[in-house]
Design brief:
The chain has helices at 4-14, 19-29, 36-42, 48-59, 81-87, 109-119, 130-137, 151-160, 166-179, 215-223, 264-275, 291-304, 336-341, 358-369, 383-390; strands at residues 89-95, 98-103, 122-127, 184-190, 193-200, 203-211, 230-236, 241-247, 279-285, 309-313, 327-331, 349-352, 373-379, 394-395, 398-399, 419-423. By secondary structure, the chain is an alpha/beta fold. Helix 14 links the parallel strand 12 and strand 13. The chain is elongated and about 85 Å long.
Amino acid sequence: MEQPTRLGEILLKAGVISEIDLARAIRQQQSTDRRLGEILCSLGCLTEGALVRALAEQLGLKVVPQSRLKPDPDLIPLFPAALLSEYSFLPIRLQGDGVEAVVFDPLDETPMQCLRFFTGREPRVMVAGKSLIDKAIEPYLKDSMPIHEGAVKDLLSWMNGLETGFLEQVRELCLNGLSRRASSLHALEEQGRLSISFKINGVLEEAASWPGLLIRPLAHALSTSTAFKVRLSVIATANGIMMTARFLRHQIATESLSEMPLNEDTRRAYEGLLADREGLVVIVGPPGFGKSRVLSASAAHLAGLGRQVIMLSADMDEAMPGSLGGIIHIRSAPSAGLISDLEFHDPDAVLVDDAVEPAALEAAARLALSGRLVIMAVPARDAVSLWKRIGGLQDGGRTVLTALRGILHPASEQGGQVFALLPL
């Protein structure tokens, strides 16, 4: 709720209400959740039009006529309709790094918070009458389920407890499911909550519980995502709304290294490793910590440097989304024989996902010793056996040196270190 004294001072300064009007409205506001501007209009102290014009003039904002209250049809589904109705605001379009919106009360911070949260952009607001905004929102309320008591407050409380916006929440949710080899996401809105599960190996596993008003925004975010492709179905049941999103690919669209779960120093050091033409880089971490993501981003990074890259993964349904020149994708378990044979293709770099077979690990190390850059993603549980198996390998007087922590760059005065550990 906005500070009534500020709005009251603006309206007093504009000469559209008296101090007696303001005092009456403030007394009534203390016993209701309604906003001060609405109360002043309902008491007959001023018209909605006069309120809007006064705010626009005093705050230097533009008044929007009814004819321009036409939101982008690809933007408005991202917002819960009940939230728009409750706080009388209407997102119009994305513009550069901002989001253009129309509000009834520009002094109310809640619409600004919602615009930032759902779009990740800074609001650029104009003003219009509440009745005009409500009329523009009405078509989007038709398909809404009955709103559970306290649903809007629950949503705002949930938003306030997060450090990232809605689209990032959806992205992280799906990346978590994909890292666990989920085939689909299932969501059910009932009793004011949104229960989200992943189907993994034919079994539904609970993943998250969100406020119920978010099922349609979630469906829209999934259907328009460029990070993953889904086949979406949404149906209304007697108990609530049910949504199923089947992942069409088990691989996400390629991201940059700057988006990886690495701190700045580690990322810079890792980019330095990728700049070298040869060496063995081992990415170590427990399941679900982003090893495959780093590997995919590394492939794109190397291709951008003009390198010929071969990427080997058993969990590749099809080629990675997008056009990545210079990358050959092979869908196969990383066996020792296959890794050894890659040398005849003369790649600049070989990337191996989920290398767990001891002989395959040794073959990758020998491929690195032959003068190529090899990057392997290895589960943390297999790291110790990796050290033991490849630590003493030699080829042409060069030795693979192990490291228990940190990053060893693949160059030294002792003949060339070709092992680097990147812990996740």
